[in-house]
Specification:
heterodimer, A: mainly alpha, MetI-like fold, 8 helices, flat, B: alpha/beta, D-Maltodextrin-Binding Protein, domain 2, nine-stranded mixed sheet, 11 helices, about 25% strand
Chain lengths: ~220, ~270
């Protein structure tokens, strides 16, 4: 029994080391894809037809193909034509582009849900487009889109496990390494706990934000 | 609230311990009879492992050296053989769970695997070679110091490398891939400096893509390939060993070996 507890502890330490990479990738993706999603959403509802079509094409491609395939392509595919991205760069880039596509649609829906009267009122107050968006529309959009964004943020935690295919030593790979070495399921159970802890933190964080933004309702 | 979470934790830990503590049962061995009764046995394999087992160019059939060998063995056992692609990292669990009856897939006989499963008599020699790109300046194991090395996760290449901790310690990075093909692709892209791989697999890749790779004269050791079987399946193992020995020593084995490797490399 004591031996087993020691095994669980050792395994946990090893798996937690792997989770550092998972966390790095997670923050890189979140920090870039949320702002990018907002900007792209604004572009998608802009009056320039070309922009709308371009963004539409982008979300169509990146929401329409598996993330795994995109990851494969960025890492192995681009290498064939001479673009040699380091593993982390390739992974972060793919995740940012992929998640921005989903977030773009979420924020577009959020922006379009705001009543037209508010734009008219802003205009009456002599606000320009930038001011209207910055002061009136976007704060409400953020408030309304917190639940779907939280969904994406949770999905992202688990999607980071896909980087195993490009040989990155993340949380899941660490667990897999122990699994192939010991043929025991325990490392996967530990990995599950770590993932669960991470999502718990994220859910908690989003709930706090939701409360903070509720003043806009 | 706190009480509840402790209960949940306790439940979870119980599950963890249970998953670890599952023992094996010692039923009487009817493995050969069962296989004869159903008329076939199932070979589990990683179907991305040329030249041992992989998808053929023209159709969906799995082909390879091990495939031909397994078919020949099945013929002599008077049964059929079915091939089932399985993820390599879980293949031993699949075997012991009963999803497959044999792992016939260039499987190296190692001590740690022997604790979990049984092996047939060895049928092939295999070296763990070090592959680098053609223009690489690396020439010895010593020179791997400070370099990035790649290999397949859970492969015997990993075991071979780990038996040389002094080499592992001095590496800049050790990258583990889902399969050998990915590791070799990354080597061709020069994101890693060398790959440790089974000679059988490495040579095949070199023949497929000439002018990219070369093999260092030093290697990481020699090992043996065998067919992985369940520990309890004693009668099946005996029958399989018998036909394997026959195949190794007659024309059929020689033909299969020549077809895939150009020469007869089967162990006598």
């Amino acid at each position: 029994m004591e031996q087993y507890i020691q095994y669980v502890l050792d395994s946990s330490v090893f798996i937690l080391k792997g989770s550092i990479l998972t966390i790095q990738l997670y923050f890189a993706t979140i920090l870039f894809s949320i702002p990018l999603g907002i900007v792209l959403a604004l572009m998608k509802i802009s009056k320039f037809k070309f922009l709308r079509i371009a963004i539409g094409f982008y979300t169509w491609v990146f929401r329409g193909t598996p993330l795994l395939l995109q990851l494969f392509f960025t890492y192995y595919g681009l290498a064939i034509i001479g673009i040699n991205l380091p593993a982390f760069t390739a992974a972060a880039l793919t995740f940012i582009i992929n998640y921005s596509a989903y977030l773009t649609e979420i924020y577009r829906a959020g922006i379009e849900s705001i009543d037209k009267g508010q734009y008219e009122a802003s205009k009456a107050l002599n606000m320009n487009y930038y001011q209207t968006m910055r002061r009136i529309i976007l704060p409400q959009v953020i408030r309304r889109t917190i639940p779907p964004t939280c969904n994406e943020a949770i999905t992202l935690v688990k999607d980071t496990a896909l980087v195993v295919v490009i040989g990155m030593g993340d949380l899941l790979l660490s667990a897999k390494e122990l699994f192939t070495r010991d043929f025991a399921i325990t490392p996967f159970a530990i990995a599950a706990v770590v993932y669960l802890l991470m999502t718990t933190v994220i859910v908690y964080f989003f709930r706090k934000i939701e409360i903070k933004y509720s003043i806009y309702e | 609230m706190k009480n509840k979470s402790i209960k949940l934790l306790a439940l979870f830990l119980t599950l963890v311990f249970l998953s670890f503590g599952c023992g094996k049962d010692n039923s009487n061995d009817k493995s050969l009879k069962q296989i004869q009764a159903k008329g076939f046995f199932i070979v589990g394999l990683d179907d991305q492992f040329p030249p041992m087992g992989f998808r053929g160019q023209d159709n969906n059939e799995i082909i390879g050296f091990d495939i031909d060998l397994a078919k020949e063995a099945a013929k002599r056992l008077g049964v059929q053989v079915q091939f089932k692609p399985v993820a390599w990292d879980g293949i031993i669990l699949s075997l012991n769970k009963g999803d497959i009856d044999a792992v016939w897939n260039g499987m190296t006989i190692t001590d740690e695997r022997k604790q979990k499963i049984e092996f047939s008599k060895p049928y092939l020699n295999n070296r763990q070679i070090i592959m680098v790109t053609l223009d690489s300046t690396l020439s010895t194991i010593e020179m791997l110091k400070g370099k990035k090395l790649g290999l397949q996760l859970g492969s015997s290449s990993e075991t071979a490398l780990n038996s040389k901790p002094e080499v592992v310690k001095q590496l800049k990075e050790l990258k583990k891939y889902e399969n050998n093909t990915l590791a070799l692709m990354d080597l061709a892209a020069k994101r890693i400096d060398a790959v440790v791989v089974d000679e059988i697999v490495g040579r095949w890749n070199m023949a497929k893509k000439p002018g990219i790779y070369k093999v260092l004269s030093e290697d990481m050791g020699t090992e043996l390939y065998g067919v992985g079987l369940r520990k309890n399946d004693i009668t099946f193992k005996e029958a399989l060993d018998k036909v394997l020995t026959e195949i190794k020593n007659d024309k059929a084995g020689e033909e299969i070996s020549k077809k895939w490797f150009g020469e007869n490399i089967l162990l006598k």
